[in-house]
Amino acid sequence: MLQYPQCHLCTTEPFEELEVYNSKRKKLTLTYCPIGNSPKNPTIAIIGFSPGPQQVKTYKKLVDQGTHPIEALSRAAFSGRLRKNLAEMLQALYLPQILGFNNSEQIFQPESLEEKVHLTSLVKCPAKIDNKPKPFDPRYFPQTLICATIRFKRELPENSVKLFITLGKHVEEFFQSFYYNYPYIAIPHPSPANMRTIKSFLNDKQKLEKLRQQIGKYLS
Ligand SMILES: [Zn+2]
User: Fold this and answer.
1) Distance from C-alpha of 95 to C-alpha of 87, rounded to nearest angstrom
2) pLDDT of residue 140
3) 6 C-alpha to center of ligand 1: Å?
């Protein structure tokens, strides 16, 4: 199992559930989910907010069955419709070609994850309230901020990453506040629930062209 620096909420045992109470006496279940990779020479990093329940389930099952963590990540990360949406957005930015890949799917292959593509989450101890996954919200649990700042900053080999791609509004807001000096572009969250935003992103020729120029500048 890959180990990363932990925030004080990330439990010592991966995937062990930790129950805590917040200031409003709500019961939260936190799970430390060390899902991600450490490529040898990462060029790009794709940053989600926190591992989704389905991703965690698939990843854990594969690893428990003895699948290599990189292979498990390759199969579990953004699986299903999420992967298709993400691949489509990355293709619209010409990113696979710029990175020397034949297509978007190659970005998620184990060889790419070993070498140059870093997949990770801003928060590795996602919280559930009443068993429903909750994205970061300081009203629920202010300490999660530590995971998205100190732990995240320690995890990333930012010196070699030339381009960070943030997925969705929450991650974009964190980058605007804490990582504004990193070379990043923000794209919509690839969730099927976000289809309207994804479609308008894919149809916004001006925005796509602007982002392609930014990518060209960072990766040149
Ligand atoms: Zn954490």
Assistant:
1) 10
2) 63
3) 6
| Cα–ligand 1 centroid distance for 109 (angstroms) | 26
SS3 for 144?
helix
Cα of 203 from ligand 1 centre, angstroms: 36
Amino acid letter, residue 90 = L
CA of 147 to the centre of ligand 1 (A): 4
Give residue 180's Cα distance to chain centre.
17
Confidence at residue 135, expressed as pLDDT on a 0 to 100 scale: 66
For residue 4, the model assigns a pLDDT of: 47
Residue pair 69/77 in contact (Cβ under 8 Å)? The answer is no
pTM of the model: 0.91
What spacing in Å lies between the alpha carbon of 30 and ligand 1's midpoint? Answer: 9
Rounded to the nearest angstrom, the distance between the alpha carbon of 136 and the centre of ligand 1 is 11
Level-2 CATH architecture, domain 17-219 = 3-Layer(aba) Sandwich (3.40)
Report, as ranges of residue numbers, the positions in the chain whose pLDDT lies below 70: 1-6, 11-12, 22-24, 134-143, 157-158
